[in-house]
Design a protein that fits this description.
The structure is a single chain. This protein has helices spanning 2-21, 29-36, 40-51, 55-73, 79-85, 91-102, 106-111, 115-132, 164-177, 245-259; strands at residues 142-147, 150-158, 187-191, 204-210, 222-227, 230-238, 269-272, 285-291. 26% of the residues are buried. 45% of the residues lie in helices and 18% in strands. The chain is of the alpha+beta class. It starts with a helix and ends with a strand.
């Protein structure tokens, strides 16, 4: 029974990977049932029973999530092009759907996103993915690495994690203005609190970019700092890296007690190696660093 369930889940996971990889293609029921190797007469009910969303709704949300990221974080693409990539024949239809879901027009969202309805809209998508997309880690996935000290520019986020997207948007805009591209200047997150502290006001994370230049804040709360070098346990995570809590839990709950190592007095942090929507979400990569004595 366990092997059969695993096979079934693997077939469903294959569908989610296909959707993420082919958001610009026709993702009709015939195509997706074929990817899963299930009968098209039953697949839509199987998908809904597994993920709590219809196939059509899931595809809509996945496309709209990419579109919203393109609007908020990139300036190069026109709204018309984003609408077409999201599967809409006309910008007006895209604008109506966008406003219905987020309470803002696409152009208004691009200028000043309201992130609260955005988070609420994508809750069902994140819940659906979390049902099958959790990665199981093993000791072989962890390496111990000596890392150098890294000088960074830091934008601090302090307060409710629901407002983190706004800080990320400001950070990305500042980084672009400063000419610090991720390909040449790596991006790090340093977590100074739990992901979900008892009080949201206690949430704390530093958004960092590798640079030894003099910091020009340009009106933003940017300061110079460093990530100290030394020994670290490193866990590489591929796919859906917006939530690295399961990877962190594995390091603290399973790997660290069995390793005989002790954590050093610096917070756990990650390096973002690739970003959505520059790559599909299942291809994003991050490395998690647990500093060791």
């Amino acid at each position: 029974m366990k092997a059969a369930l695993q096979t079934y889940q693997d077939r469903m996971r294959r569908v989610l990977d296909h959707i993420d990889r082919h958001l610009d293609h026709d993702l009709d029921l015939d195509t997706l049932s074929g990817v899963a190797a299930f009968s098209k007469f039953h697949f839509h009910r199987q998908f809904s029973a597994t993920f709590g969303l219809s196939v059509h709704r899931y595809v809509q949300l996945a496309r709209m999530k990419r579109a919203s990221h393109q609007l908020a974080y990139t300036d190069a693409q026109r709204v018309t092009d984003i609408a077409i990539e999201a599967g809409y024949d006309a910008p007006d239809a895209f604008a109506r759907a966008f406003r219905q879901r987020f309470g803002q027009s696409p152009s208004s969202f691009r200028k000043s996103p309201d992130w609260e309805p955005w988070l609420a809209a994508f809750g069902p998508l994140d819940n659906a993915r979390s049902k099958l997309m959790q990665t199981t880690f093993t000791r072989d996935d962890v390496t111990i690495r000596d890392v150098p000290t890294t000088k960074v520019a830091i934008m601090e986020h302090r307060g409710d994690p629901a407002t983190l997207q706004a800080t990320l948007q400001r950070f990305i805009a500042w980084r672009k203005a400063a000419g610090l591209h991720p390909r040449t200047n790596p991006t790090f997150n340093v977590w100074r609190s739990e992901r979900r502290p008892a009080s949201p006001a206690d949430y704390s994370v530093d958004l960092c970019v590798d640079t030894d230049r003099a910091i020009v804040a340009n009106g933003e709360g940017i300061k110079a700092g460093e990530i100290p070098g030394g020994r670290c346990a490193v866990l590489r995570v591929v796919g859906y890296t917006n939530n690295l809590e399961p990877a962190a839990l594995y390091l603290y709950r399973d790997w660290l007690p069995a390793s005989g190592e002790e954590a050093r007095d610096f917070p756990i942090y990650c390096q973002r190696l690739s970003f959505f929507p520059e790559v599909p979400e299942h291809e994003t990569v991050a490395e998690l660093f647990l500093p060791l004595k």
